[in-house]
Amino acid sequence: MFYGYISGLGYKSNWVIQGMPRVCHSSWLLRKKYPTVIKGQIIIGENFQCVNKFTSNSIGLIQPCLFNVSASGSRIIIGKNVGISGSTINATTTITIGDNTIIGSGCLITDTNSHPIMAAVRLLPNGGEEYTKKAPVTIGKNVFIGARSIVMKGVTIGDGVVIGAGSVVTKNVPANAIVAGNPAKVIKFIEQ
Length: 192
Ligand SMILES: CC(C)(COP(=O)(O)OP(=O)(O)OC[C@H]1O[C@@H](n2cnc3c(N)ncnc32)[C@H](O)[C@@H]1OP(=O)(O)O)[C@@H](O)C(=O)NCCC(=O)NCCS
Description:
- The protein starts with a strand and ends with a strand.
- It is globular, with a radius of gyration of 17 Å.
- The strands form three sheets. Strands 1-2-5-8-11-14-17-19-20 form a nine-stranded mixed beta sheet, with no helix packed on it. It has a six-stranded parallel beta sheet with strand order 3-6-9-12-15-18, with no helix packed on it.
- It is mainly β.
- The model has no long low-confidence stretch (mean pLDDT 90).
- 5% of the residues lie in helices and 31% in strands.
- Bound molecules: coenzyme A.
């Protein structure tokens, strides 16, 4: 374990990082054309905990964390006291993660379909990038996202929400709800 520096992310002395996360600032296509291009931005608050080694989590990791901000103007904004275990945060617009939120092992948070749905458009020279649906994702404060969950484009998750393990969240979730399943549905509310 070490404190601080993550390659491509920066440094805060009170971060706790186990193993090495991966950061993608520019796509391989853009890198080939413009070798020094830095496209997106990652902003991380105090006390960030990020685990990336198989043994750094009680249930094991299937991947190190991957932060992708390779699209022009993309942003990942992470609040204070956030913990992420071996998950992918894939931003082409903006993905915001609120204070005190914890993200379990093997999750995917993505704000894009990554490819257009029409086959003919996917065959365009750039893969039909401009036809790909994208929308920002906002995750509130004090959220707990269970292991192996997926949060899809355009979703807003309210404060205090719990997402059951293995859920696929496709719609907004109200504050203090517990949601689970595919597609995720409210199973109960947490009494405050
Ligand atoms: C969502 C969760 C917190 C709910 O826990 P709980 O309050 O004890 O709820 P219960 O176990 O009583 O389950 C309530 C109902 O939700 C269902 N449910 C619970 N978790 C579910 C899940 N992940 N997917 C689908 N349904 C789920 C149960 O089957 C039960 O259904 P029923 O009322 O029809 O019997 C828990 O099940 C969970 O998924 N925890 C995440 C664990 C995890 O990923 N840890 C991260 C490690 S890195």
